[in-house]
């Protein structure tokens, strides 16, 4: 493995068309699109920031739920319309849906190219063939691909916070989840290349990185030269990254309740620049559902992990994911989810109703037998309870002062800025003389269930 990065020289080549990338889905897709930009720029193409001038449109897709896929089909109709106006326009479908639907998506009249998550290095070659007039598809898995040597081109205009991929794929096979089928086997990225990428981000003025993987707790680097001293687990990697610069904020996601050990929690406690927030998806509060989902932990084990977080990191917030209406979910199973929510008092949550995904264990073995209205009703109950819990969590912060990393103007008013606390709560405050990218101290005066509202505390404490 090499830790040498391709230097991206954005050479605008008049002969090569401009490309545009539209991204759907998770943080992993955001980061993958940045890899795509890097690969394309290296080949001489130039990125354009509006779809109107693009001669190539890439759409990076998500398959996690059916409604995510429906949105993409809708976009392809729009692109088809654009192609009628611009005959030389080319459309490439990337990501999870490309891998899942293969030829089915290639046969859409708008689509010229289909490339799965492990095929992005080949995009320039595939485009050459497309230009010869033939549709192209490359969706094979490559269990060694981590794009380690590619420096993603950050397209975030503020340059404050960046995602850094530390692993790809997932081996967990949760019964409802399409991810292992579309992203392949889990593989961890060379820690040297992770460190190098973070160091480059610091040099370029970034203030925060989020280390991302489907299950960061199973990150494992085994030294190819069989030197056990060079092996690294996630807790150790976190420490390596935290030591790069004490002023750099570190976040990570996603943690898995079956794998998250105390080592990670102790590392978080040791380094103040690692943010006190853990995203720990629970999915359900019922042991019967957890077992059917193949999550490999019980409600008791989950609560034990929460207790460990609270004991080792008293200031840490916990967010989670829920699925309402999984196969066979009874009123009692649903009640167990609500009671778990009351017990844990999650600070934030992402909540979904179950959507059956083809080829998963659940699709093959369990009937999707909770009626849609029941799923929706249960989801609404979960959302209502979480809104109340999030509000209570935010109310506990009123009167406290937090260090906020300023990310941009607030949505509602240019006179206000917004940023996030280490606990990952969005905080809005009057701008005064704070700048995007500053760390400022904000004292919280009020809140809603989604936002903390405050004002700048002693300005001298701001750090650049
Ligand atoms: N239906 C609904 N939600 C799902 N998720 C994953 N697969 C499905 C599905 N088939 C949710 C889980 C996961 C999050 C990323 O998406 O809660 O943690
Ligand atoms: Fe899907 Fe489970 Fe892997 Fe998460 S851990 S990506 S839910 S299979």
Number of domains: 4
- What's the architecture of the largest domain in CATH terms? 3-Layer(aba) Sandwich
Strand order of the largest sheet: 2-1-3-4-5-6
Q: What is the level 1 CATH name of the largest domain?
A: Alpha Beta
Give the biggest beta sheet. Answer: 6 strands, parallel
**CATH homologous superfamily identity of the largest domain:** Methylthiotransferase, N-terminal domain
Poorly predicted regions: 1-12
Catalogue the ligands. 5'-deoxyadenosine, iron/sulfur cluster
As an assembly, this protein is single chain
- Calculate the mean pLDDT score and round it: 94
First-residue to last-residue Cα separation: 35 Å
Residue share in β-strands: 15-25%
Q: Helical element count?
A: 13
Count the strands? 21
Explain what this protein looks like in three dimensions.
With 464 residues, the chain is of the alpha/beta class. Helix 7 packs parallel to helix 8 and helix 11 packs parallel to helix 13 (372-395). It is built from 13 helices and 21 strands. The chain is 33% helix and 22% strand. The strands form 6 sheets. Strands 2-1-3-4-5-6 form a 6-stranded parallel beta sheet, sandwiched between helices. The chain has a 5-stranded mixed β-barrel with strand order 17-18-19-21-20. It folds into 4 domains: 2-138, 3-Layer(aba) Sandwich (Rossmann fold), CATH 3.40.50.12160; 158-275, 2-Layer Sandwich (Transcription Regulator spoIIAA); 308-395, 2-Layer Sandwich (Transcription Regulator spoIIAA), CATH 3.30.750; 401-456, Beta Barrel (OB fold (Dihydrolipoamide Acetyltransferase, E2P)), CATH 2.40.50.
